[in-house]
C-alpha cells in the first residue's frame, strides 16, 4: 500500500465531504425561497458528491488506509438575506469548489499513474469526469444568466 496515494484519496474525500455540506446548504436555502427546481438540482449534486465520497472511502479501505471523515474545508456562507445576487454567489462559490476538485483529481491521477495503481486511475478518472460535468453545468448557468438576466433565469427555476 502506498501512503502517498492514500494521502491524495483522503484529500479528495475531504473535498467531497465539503461539497456535500455546501450543496446541502444551497439546496435548503433555495428551497426555503421557492427556487424549487434549482434546489432539487443542488440536492442531486449533493447525492452525487456523497457517492463520490463513498467510493473514495471504499478504495482507501481496500488500500489498507484509514478514510478521514473528520476534516472539512470552509464552505460558502449564507447571511440570511436572499436577494437577486444570492444566486450568482451560490454559482460562483460552487464553481470554485468544483474547480479545486478537478485540480486535486488530476493531481491524484498523476500520482496513481506513477505508482502504476491502475485501478485507482480508473476510479479517479470516472470521478473526474463527473466533476467536469458539474463544472460545465455551472458554467452554463452563469452564461445563461449573463444572456437572459437573473430575473428571467430565476423564472425558469421555480
Ligand atoms: Fe465529487
Ligand atoms: Fe462536483
How would you sum up this structure, described in words?
The protein is mainly alpha-helical. The chain has one domain: Ferritin (Up-down Bundle). Helix content is 79%, strand content 0%. The protein has helices at 3-32, 36-62, 84-114, 118-148, 150-155. Helix 1 (3-32) packs antiparallel against helix 3. Bound molecules: fe (ii) ion (2 copies). One fe (ii) ion binds at residues 16, 19, 49, 52, 101, 131. One fe (ii) ion (FE2) binds next to helix 3 and helix 4. It holds the Pfam family Ferritin.
What is the element layout, followed by pairings?
Blueprint: H1 3-32, H2 36-62, H3 84-114, H4 118-148, H5 150-155
List keywords for this structure.
binds fe (ii) ion; Ferritin; 158 residues; elongated; mainly alpha
User: How large, in whole angstroms, is the Cα Rg?
Assistant: 17 Å
Largest sheet: none
Low-confidence stretches: none
Average pLDDT: 97
CATH topology tier name: Ferritin
> What would CATH call the homologous superfamily?
Ferritin, core subunit, four-helix bundle
Task: Assign the CATH class.
Answer: Mainly Alpha
As for the number of domains, it is: 1
Based on the coordinates given, report the CATH architecture.
Answer: Up-down Bundle
SSE succession: HHHHH
Estimate the global geometry from the Cα principal axes. Answer: elongated
Structural class: mainly alpha
Beta-strand content bin: under 5%
Amino acid at each position: 500500500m502506498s501512503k502517498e496515494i492514500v494521502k491524495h484519496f483522503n484529500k479528495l474525500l475531504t473535498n467531497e465531504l465539503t461539497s456535500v455540506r455546501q450543496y446541502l446548504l444551497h439546496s435548503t436555502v433555495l428551497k426555503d425561497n421557492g427556487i424549487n427546481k434549482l434546489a432539487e438540482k443542488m440536492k442531486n449534486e449533493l447525492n452525487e458528491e456523497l457517492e463520490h465520497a463513498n467510493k473514495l472511502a471504499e478504495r482507501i479501505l481496500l488500500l489498507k488506509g484509514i478514510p478521514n471523515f473528520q476534516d472539512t474545508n470552509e464552505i460558502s456562507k449564507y447571511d440570511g438575506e436572499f436577494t437577486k445576487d444570492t444566486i450568482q454567489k451560490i454559482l460562483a462559490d460552487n464553481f470554485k469548489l468544483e474547480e479545486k476538485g478537478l485540480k486535486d483529481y488530476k493531481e491524484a491521477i498523476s500520482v496513481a499513474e506513477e505508482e502504476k495503481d491502475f485501478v485507482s486511475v480508473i476510479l479517479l478518472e470516472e470521478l473526474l469526469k463527473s466533476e467536469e460535468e458539474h463544472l460545465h453545468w455551472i458554467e452554463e448557468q452563469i452564461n445563461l444568466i449573463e444572456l437572459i438576466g437573473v430575473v428571467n433565469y430565476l423564472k425558469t427555476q421555480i
